[in-house]
Amino acid sequence: MLKLEQVSKTYGNKSEKAVDNISFQVYPGEIFGFVGPNGAGKTTTIKMIVSLLAPNSGKIIINGIDNQKNILEAKKQFSYVPDNPELFEKIKGIEYLKFMADVYEVPVAERQQLIEKYLAVFEIKEAVNDPIGSYSHGMKQKLALVGALIHDPQLFVLDEPMVGLDPKASFELKKIMREHCDRGRSVFFSTHVLDVAEKICDRIAIIKKGKIIEVGTMAEIREKAGSQESLENIFLELTE
Ligand SMILES: Nc1ncnc2c1ncn2[C@@H]1O[C@H](COP(=O)(O)OP(=O)(O)O)[C@@H](O)[C@H]1O
Ligand SMILES: [Mg+2]
């Protein structure tokens, strides 16, 4: 579903690489967590996956499509919610959702139903007729999630999705992520909240200073570390 091959990125003329020769794969049906401390290179990696940044070297294949060779086709395979969604402030929530549905060519009959469903799930139904500029940070994030969900992508890419969401919305999002993968699709998300990754991910990759230091299931990572402890302890040891 998603394959990174020896991907590197350096910003400007910095001497250190933000992302340093990373490779991993996300398979169909999988919730994959990208875990690491602040500044590790998670957002940089995600921006390369979604074609907001070009890698200096390496290859990114999304559902079989090279995202540097065929950017538009690659973009149709996923939807993306950034860590800090910047939405058009002057338009109404509902206008944004219709715009997203148009961009991704969601049939009118289908979109209505999906919009209703997700607005109810995230409890922002009352707000959709107000301008986005009047929304709180959490509401903007929920609206961005709804906009990303209505075209039912093969791959769902989320940067720190739980930050800023209330417990109910966070619970619902985790449920949606699971359902998405149960239909053979995939979720790739970053987090520095380790408990979340430990509870919901099928596999994780741990990134530190731009390098991937572990990839696998929790059980595999525990076994390698020779420990039954929580991911948090292992993570602290690995990133020390
Ligand atoms: N636009 C940028 N210009 C220069 N350096 C950047 C930029 N964005 C991120 N960095 C640097 O790249 C490294 C990785 O950052 P980032 O990918 O945001 O990490 P994370 O998302 O894991 O917190 C950090 O050292 C950060 O300071
Ligand atoms: Mg980040």
From TrEMBL:
<dbReference type="InterPro" id="IPR051782">
    <property type="entry name" value="ABC_Transporter_VariousFunc"/>
</dbReference>
<dbReference type="GO" id="GO:0005524">
    <property type="term" value="F:ATP binding"/>
</dbReference>
<dbReference type="InterPro" id="IPR027417">
    <property type="entry name" value="P-loop_NTPase"/>
</dbReference>
<dbReference type="InterPro" id="IPR017871">
    <property type="entry name" value="ABC_transporter-like_CS"/>
</dbReference>
<keyword id="KW-0547">Nucleotide-binding</keyword>
<keyword id="KW-0067">ATP-binding</keyword>
<dbReference type="InterPro" id="IPR003593">
    <property type="entry name" value="AAA+_ATPase"/>
</dbReference>
<feature type="domain" description="ABC transporter">
    <location>
        <begin position="2"/>
        <end position="234"/>
    </location>
</feature>
<dbReference type="InterPro" id="IPR003439">
    <property type="entry name" value="ABC_transporter-like_ATP-bd"/>
</dbReference>
<dbReference type="Pfam" id="PF00005">
    <property type="entry name" value="ABC_tran"/>
</dbReference>
<protein>
    <submittedName>
        <fullName>ATP-binding cassette domain-containing protein</fullName>
    </submittedName>
</protein>
<keyword id="KW-0813">Transport</keyword>
